[in-house]
Amino acid sequence: MSQTNILLASLASGTFTVQDLTTPLSKDTPTLVLPEPFANLIDFNLEEVSAYDSPGPFWKHHNIHTGEHIGTHLDAPIHWVTGRDGKDVSQIDPKRLVGAGVVLDFRDKVANNPDYLITIDDLEEWQRNHGSFPSNAWLLFRTGWDQYGSDRQAFLNADETGSHTPGFTAECARHIALNLDISGVGVETVGIDAGNAAQLDPPFPMHNFLLGNDKYGVTSLKNLDKLPLSGSLIVVAPLPIVGGTGAPARVLALVPNE
Ligand code: MN
């Protein structure tokens, strides 16, 4: 049997299942909100052009209006000033978009502290317990934040002291970008950096280091609880927008049923 047939037979028999890690896109999808004086992207919106009526009697279709960075989406290198000479979203090698899924679970730490910043020690502890990260892997950080995905206020968790969502220390961001042979990082929150990452040095260190080193970020993931800590295969499929700094992405996982 060919390798493809083995895989197809595994899917047909239920040896593997396909999990959708994507948050559905709608006008209610929470978008990152930057404080004054910065400019914000628009929310996602569908504009009806016809609906089996006189503008199109046999069909229904819409225009979509959206920012690039909406819902489950990929950040491409040119999104950040450190990656300005790097790739746009259409230029990313598809080989980097398919890789091993590694789930790191920080629900306990985040439950007590929504501002929790993941450290190098946290990553090294995971590797001591579960083995090293495969080459070209996607590191998927489970914080429990996906439970707030349908509640914009809880998801952004902002007050007068800023937005309180988990992320990474600057040292950890630098370590991931420079020392790990991975493709990218996926998170359940609205962005790859912590809500208060403007206060870190450098500001927004995950954006700074990852995108400046040709590694990619994916946000607003869900269903990470349906994945094993290791052993899944991840497919990240952003729209190949020419010149795009990011794009909505369908993110799928092939999961062995063991
Ligand atoms: Mn983004």
Give the total of beta strands: 14
Low-confidence stretches: none
| Main sheet strand line-up | 4-12-11-7-5-13-14
The CATH architecture category equals: 3-Layer(bba) Sandwich
CATH top-level class = Alpha Beta
Count structural domains: 1
Approximate helicity band = 10-25%
From the spread of the alpha carbons, the general shape counts as globular
Based on secondary structure, the structural category is alpha/beta
**Ligands:** manganese (II) ion
CATH topology: Glucose Oxidase, domain 1
CATH superfamily: Putative cyclase
Overall average residue pLDDT? 96
How many H/I helical runs? 6
Overall description:
- The chain has one domain (16-39, 68-256): Putative cyclase (Glucose Oxidase, domain 1), CATH 3.50.30.50.
- It has six helices and 14 strands.
- It has helices spanning 3-13, 107-112, 120-130, 152-156, 170-179, 205-212, and strands spanning 16-20, 45-53, 56-65, 73-75, 98-105, 117-118, 137-142, 158-159, 162-163, 167-168, 182-187, 216-218, 232-238, 246-256.
- The strands form four sheets. Strands 4-12-11-7-5-13-14 form a seven-stranded mixed β-barrel. A two-stranded antiparallel ribbon has the order 2-3. Strands 6-10 form a two-stranded parallel ribbon.
- The chain binds manganese (II) ion.
- Manganese (II) ion is lined by residues 69, 73, 75, 191, 246.
Main attributes of the structure:
single chain; 258 residues; alpha/beta; Glucose Oxidase, domain 1; seven-stranded mixed beta barrel; 6 helices; 14 strands; binds manganese (II) ion
